[in-house]
Write the structure tokens for this entry.
Amino acid sequence: SHCHAVSESGNQYIGLYSSIRSISDSYSQTKDQLSLIHQSMRNETNVLKRYTVGTSSETKIDQLYWIRQLERGTQLFYDLMQKKLSTYSSHALAAFKTKFERALKRNGFLNISRFLKKLKEQVQTASRSVKKQTSGMAAVSRLSEAIVALFSKPNQKLDLVANRIKEMEKYVMNINGMVRTCKH
């Protein structure tokens, strides 16, 4: 039936978006957690600087030595964190695109753009007999365009596209509504 086709195609859009969104959300959550750990390390080092341990100059030298070690460790953690986050941010979407397109090629699609074009055609064909689906169809078009644009530039950084990915959710909600309200 037409509703089955609308549902199947709509769910493929939703699944693709969910995969992209989970990559972005995982990156953001990891970045936030690592930043909290780094801030905690800095705060604890600053607390130790304020403590006085003994009165001898030898004890003070030992204390300064260990504080410098903690500061170096905190800086090393920060530098490694920034490097790894930057690498992931730069390569995560490209890696996903590569894996996804390999799977698409096994199923006869050249790339994401062609897959989305075919998916959009399926929704349009199925929804011709469905009335009042204009917002859902507009969402299908806009989500297709947004995903193609997202993957059209190589090595897009998640830091720079995270908001665009979140904005796509409104299209997904309209598609989901179209799927839910389809009547046989």
Remarks:
- The CA atoms of residues 15 and 98 lie 17 Å apart.
- The radius of gyration is 25 Å.
- The helical segments are 2-50, 57-106, 112-127, 134-152, 158-167, 169-181.
- The chain has a mean pLDDT of 90.
